């Protein structure tokens, strides 16, 4: 088996691409398949078969390493192709079936996974396979089906730790706290050993509820458990609990401990730390984390989005503008959400000329502007009583609207219609026809907030991502084990 370091060196040195069935003799099998520029829609089976035909049979250990790498990179279609190719001439093991079941669910959907499960002989339907199906149901939030499989698994004499973790996580995501608490009680009564995933799910639940007593008790149990790993993400979850409870000093203490455990590739950690320090109002720490992250290199658009959003939350518009200039000079791939951080900030500050100028720059860059951005601009114009501009922007919002879950700003739309009605029937009728053409009816619109309707802006997006990242980070290590 290739060692991790050796594999890393191979992949870094290989800067060639594979396209269709073209190969280069200097490439390794892994670099051919894992090339970041490889076409995800092109099957990897010809690559595997060509390698085998060249007289270089693939060792099972290497195949499993490659399979794990593909799954970690979310290349599930290729992983499924590899899993099927690996076992085409050999007998399937329950472990093979469990992996394939998970991949089928991800690639082809839950229904196909259920069909595959139903086709399995009884000899292959083991506890491990049931666990894989349970995970499929949990991912799709199929509570009833997950509970039924969980009940079947209870009758088997096997370690249920991970299964309990999956159900706890499912109940937590769906807000079913009574079922969550009942399952915790069941675990305690049965003396179920806590695994890393279980620790993380429960800790996140108590932190979310600001149940400090339960959170601290569980955290202490983790610290005293030799099998539990108190990583940077665990400290961040505890910090979140303290932050929600208004215990800023304790939250800051946990974040400083988390910083010490962040490794070289600390992209996710940096984003979470940025957001949480911003929530604490610690601007110096935000800038310190940002500067450390930049030194690591390879700063992505999402990193710029996070730091700019955090500076906006801290009311440091000048700082956000400087980061925006850094982003422009870096010449990374253009994303509208980056300038939109400043556009929203300018709007909230009443700096409409600045917001308008930056918006126009973003449009001039050639990037397609989504409907909600035009909608937000129309609302800004409406608040400033620039109704001609508001109507023009709302027209563009309507044309770009494609039935998204969010709704156009009701009050802005009505204001535009009323303004056009006052100007004359012709323009009003033309606008009404435009709405009808795109299937937009006024009674579809929900009441919206003053800040621009359903486009709640960068700050709310950041906070939503922060909550998601907090949970994902708290369970990420467990999920990989």
| Annotation field: number of helices | 26
User: H/E element string?
Assistant: HHHHHHHHHHHHHHHHHHHHHHHHHH
Instruction: Report the β-strand fraction as a percent range.
Output: under 5%
How many beta-strand runs?
A: 0
Protein name: OLC1v1023981C1
GO molecular function: mRNA binding
Organism: Oldenlandia corymbosa var. corymbosa
InterPro entries: PPR_rpt, TPR-like_helical_dom_sf
In short:
The chain has 481 residues and is mostly helical.
Q: What would you note in describing this structure?
A:
With 481 residues, the protein is mostly helical. 69% of the residues lie in helices and 0% in strands. It is built from 26 helices and no strands. It has helices at residues 4-13, 29-34, 45-53, 60-72, 76-86, 94-108, 110-118, 127-139, 143-154, 161-173, 177-190, 196-208, 212-224, 232-244, 248-260, 267-279, 283-296, 301-313, 317-330, 337-348, 352-364, 371-383, 387-400, 410-423, 425-437, 457-480. Helix 8 runs parallel beside helix 10 (161-173). The model is unreliable at 1-26 and 443-481 (pLDDT under 50).
Output the keywords:
globular; OLC1v1023981C1; single chain; 69% helix; mainly alpha; repeat; 481 residues; disordered N terminus
Topology diagram in text:
Blueprint: H1 4-13, H2 29-34, H3 45-53, H4 60-72, H5 76-86, H6 94-108, H7 110-118, H8 127-139, H9 143-154, H10 161-173, H11 177-190, H12 196-208, H13 212-224, H14 232-244, H15 248-260, H16 267-279, H17 283-296, H18 301-313, H19 317-330, H20 337-348, H21 352-364, H22 371-383, H23 387-400, H24 410-423, H25 425-437, H26 457-480
Helix pairs in contact: 4-5, 5-6, 6-7, 6-8, 8-9, 8-10, 9-10, 10-11, 10-12, 12-13, 12-14, 12-26, 14-15, 14-16, 14-26, 16-17, 16-18, 16-26, 18-19, 18-20, 19-20, 20-21, 22-23, 23-24, 24-25
Keywords: Repeat
Organism: Oldenlandia corymbosa var. corymbosa
Family: Belongs to the PPR family. P subfamily.
